[in-house]
């Protein structure tokens, strides 16, 4: 296996946390080569926005380093580029970002240090034999790409080079709450950005649900290119998903928790990898060990639902547990949305966080069992981005 992983500190003002995304491929058999290398550099050199001044100037950036040297860097025309190397491998870059829930906040600088990782996935696909070969290499990232939601703040940011720019602010529930919306997943459908939360009710200790706020996590937000927001009640759709495995609308009989979802234009379906699956009322001690091993799909109207078992755990059956839950996933570019790359994370009280990466197809065949990433972080955002492009990687080289 061939993977190099170097989590490193990422210094971004305003506390921007993550984007979503990941790759996929059309393959029946797949060989994934990975090699662990490098050391954890999460506490080493921080790339600070304060180290350089960035000025937006029409369609390009002027970057000045601490020695006042100047370079002009134009933005990429697309999110990522697929390259082909001399051996015929296609190569696409991606980036992940960790959510530390404020544990690395720098109050003096009014900023956050958020460990991240960037990498390259190489793959070769033989249509005649339906065989594919994957290689994954990872390193340290520098910036986020696209429009992103700052976890827990209800603010959607878009990145202008290394600069996070606030774009949309929205409230919880139907939009009239005083609390910000807690975004857990994002997807694009019909040219609009859709963001959603856990998709379950919040019950009181006695099992009752506050009619004013208990259903807020069942709303999603639909944002158009102008930043206009619609607050849409997805209560019925979330209930339809859990009814597929015998969980009723009563949250005291069980629930699903969603942290990752995508829409496939090719299959014309939503894909969900629930983080938690429980057949009983919420209890924190039980919840952290109720992670799901299933994938759900739904057509646009949620009238056709499918369920597929996804077991990416390579440990002996007797040693497997349900502490690793899906936190993000994406389809592999140019694979007809047949192969998924996903992140799975562990969050147990008073224990270090863990993140694993895995690859499988939409029929449940595992091509890469769970492989742990370095560092005690929860990586919950992943997106394809050409981080090798100068627009995103604006470090000035010393002579």
Walk me through this protein's architecture:
The protein has 399 residues and is mainly beta. The protein has a single domain, classed as Neuraminidase (6 Propeller), CATH 2.120.10.100. It is 3% helix and 39% strand. The chain is built from two helices and 29 strands. The chain has helices spanning 235-243, 284-287, and strands spanning 11-13, 29-33, 53-57, 60-64, 70-73, 83-84, 90-98, 105-106, 111-113, 116-126, 131-139, 147-150, 155-160, 163-169, 185-189, 192-196, 219-223, 229-233, 255-257, 261-264, 269-272, 276-278, 294-298, 305-309, 324-331, 339-346, 354-361, 366-372, 379-384. Strands 2, 6, 7, 10, 11 and 29 form a six-stranded mixed sheet that branches. A four-stranded antiparallel sheet has the order 15-16-17-18, with no helix packed on it. The longest helix has 9 residues, at 235-243.
Reported for the largest beta sheet, the result is: 6 strands, mixed
Count of helical regions: 2
Q: How many strands appear in the DSSP assignment?
A: 29
The CATH architecture assignment turns out to be 6 Propeller
In round numbers, the mean pLDDT is 72
**How many domain regions?**
1
| Secondary structure category | mainly beta
User: Given the C-alpha coordinates, what overall shape results?
Assistant: globular
Task: Name the beta content range.
Answer: 35-45%
- Low-confidence segments, given as residue ranges, are 1-77, 127-132, 137-149, 395-399
Keywords: Calcium, Hydrolase, Metal-binding
InterPro entries: Apyrase (IPR009283), Apyrase_sf (IPR036258)
Protein name: Apyrase
Binding site for Ca(2+): 140, 184, 259, 327, 380
